[in-house]
Amino acid sequence: MTEHALLGLASVVVLGITAQWMAWFVRIPSIFLLLLIGLAAGPLTGWLEPQALFGDLLFPAVSLAVAIILFEGGLSLQTVVLQDIGRVLRRLVTVGMLATWLIASTAAYVLLGLDPSMSALVGAMLVVSGPTVVGPLLRHVRPIGHLRSTLQWEGILIDPIGVLLAVLVFEVILIGELQAATTLIVKGMLIMVVAGSGLGYVSAKTVVWLIQRGLIPDYLHNAVTLMTVVVAFTGANLLYHEAGLFTVTVMGIVIANQKAIIVRHIIEFKETLTGLLISGLFILLSARLEVSHLTQLGGSSLVFLGVLILIARPAAVALSTWGSGLPWRERAFLAWVAPRGIVAAAMASIFALRLQAEGYAQADQLVPITFLVIIGCVVVYGLTTAPLARWLQVAQDNPQGVLFIGASPLSQALAQALQEEGIATCLADSNWSNIAAARLNGFTNTYYGNALTEDALDNIDIDGIGRVLALTPNDEANALAALHFAELFGRAEAYQLAPSTADSAMVPHLRGQFLFAEHTHYHELSRQIASGAVIKTTGLSEQFDYDAFQTYYQHAAQPLFVITSRDSLLIRMAQQPLSPIPGDRIVSLIPAEVLAVVTPGAVPAHPPAS
């Protein structure tokens, strides 16, 4: 028995992480593979039996895992953006939610043949969205302006609010009379909003106060924070069913927006933990599905899915953005993004089990309908959102721009060369003289301040920016900057200069990728720029190829970037030399002594016009 349980737990971990790994490799939403593998391991093969594995602990464990996921989602929200998106956001989680509930409930009654009470419950469960599906979609699409913030906030706030709505509908079903349930509904809303938010605020402030005063050692910051999340969630749930989700969401938002302590390490830990929890939850919940229930779903279920995507979401967005002044392109994009995730799956599983115990005949339809909607939304939105965003011109399609950490003359020279070739740049520096000089030299996108602060990711204008280059004289600051912005751009697009001294060894996973040639550091590059070296762009052709370029500059030119014929930017790395071809443009550093002896005009500055 022990060996069977161990095998089951190991299967959940291995299958979940493997699914996410495979999804990354083939560039598809991970939730899709998680659901498919869960179905294969559960109802199709009988390999995994979650109920037998966990018993009565399954759904309490699911609820606690969802709470941690929502807490991590709250940590990603910055209140500074609410001044721009607050009005639309409030409508989306109130008017928009009610519109979605009404339309979804009506569609469930008409199309799926559910009775009114069960239809209302299905509609309530499907108003939620969630960070587990919205976040990866937004990272892939990278919408411009405040669309990203609006969808992030909605995806996180709608979950606890939607859960409360579903719980209230569930209680009405059990009581059987709406009039008798009115007091319960009002009481539940007051407890969630007042007690839930108050408990979340106090819990967050307690953690911050303890860390700020050094009462928690560094190695226990994450553990104590997690413990507090569990205590706050459990305490709120004891006050009212599922009020804990709202509590932990508020707790995450408060911790993320305070200024007393740095919480980056807590956020990183919760992101890792959330990835593990999401993998396990989707595997376990999809493994509980019954094949017979799935096969009973007919064409009316697909029509129901179509109503949610083509009618409910557009109507909710239309009502929420009426008179907001949002351009029609942005409203259209908002109307097309409403995937469902782990919260809907968890609610369906929990409610179905409890209603089946009460003898409700249609309770067994809750889970297959919900999972059909989840899978359908993932497929439809996953395949169409990015092309639609490009068509609507609201996405940063493969941004080639560069964020320079450090605005020294070296950074300005590199940025100037890239800007002249149509590559977007942004210069960030905490040294005012560097920023002032950059602005005097015509750089319009600059950021004055510490790029490593919590607010930098939200305040730096990254429209058109797809990578970061850390070019300060401080090797440790470069490494920190690369790690900091790897969260936004990915590790593959986070670069830094090599250390200035040979004994400054850096662990690979604690730094960015080393730029340019081996042992090319800040002081050497700055010395060359100060002595007259020039950052020059040279076009290659069939007549003047890369070998001819090197010969012309006496093999002394140091290639830094290559801009391909399709205007893609390639960056030279210490362990990965560039291989330019005709039609490419090379951005290189030409030493002053070489410039003094080469023949002026012998090499074209740009490739021939096509």
From TrEMBL:
Residues 18-391 form the Cation/H+ exchanger transmembrane domain. Residues 403-493 form the RCK N-terminal domain. It is a multi-pass membrane protein. InterPro entries: Cation/H_exchanger_TM, NAD(P)-bd_dom_sf, RCK_N. One of its GO terms (cellular component) is plasma membrane. Keywords: Antiport, Ion transport, Membrane, Transmembrane, Transmembrane helix, Transport. SUPFAM superfamilies: NAD(P)-binding Rossmann-fold domains. Pfam families: Na_H_Exchanger (PF00999), TrkA_N (PF02254). It comes from the Bacteria. The chain crosses the membrane at residues 6-24, 31-48, 54-71, 92-112, 118-137, 157-176, 188-211, 223-240, 246-266, 273-289, 301-321, 333-353, 365-383. It is found in: Cell membrane. GO terms for biological process: potassium ion transport; proton transmembrane transport. GO terms for molecular function: antiporter activity. PANTHER family: NA(+)/H(+) ANTIPORTER 1 (PTHR32507), NA(+)_H(+) ANTIPORTER 2-RELATED (PTHR32507:SF0). This is Uncharacterized protein. The lineage of its organism: Bacteria, Pseudomonadati, Nitrospinota/Tectimicrobiota group, Candidatus Tectimicrobiota, Candidatus Entotheonellia.
